[in-house]
Fold this protein.
Amino acid sequence: MQRFPRAVAAALVLGLAGACGDDSDQYLNDLKSDNPIVRQGAATQARNSADARVVEALMAVTRDDNAEIRTRAVESLGIIADKRAVPALVQALGDADPDVRREAVEALGKLKDKSAGPALAALLKTEEKPYDVVWALGQIGDRSAIPLLTPMLDSQDRYLAYNAMMALRRLR
């Protein structure tokens, strides 16, 4: 068995440690790329950074022309869980793409910011299957949603009724 000299092993370890560091500058560059594949990859990988500059860049990318890139940016903002992203996430609730909206709902539920309550309540009325919206309203603790959620307890859709019950339980 061949052994690495200690100096080579140390260099490898140091190199790997550097590769595992924060790549915020690279994410910032890639999020501005003309190549949509590069932007999508950066929007996905940027969730590994808590750098305020990356959060701001992801917020801008939530308005990208490509729905998949918007979805990844919104998802990453939810994982980073920085409250500065709430306005961009609320805006994403109005996105034409249902995946973007779903990720925005989930992110807002995780952030538990009550300022998102009115926008989520409005979305509750327009979504065909608002299960995630019901969950998010329960998570953020917006008691003004109680009158909207209470009638859902009688829904023929058992999953919706169950989600409403769980959300209301959190709100009481």
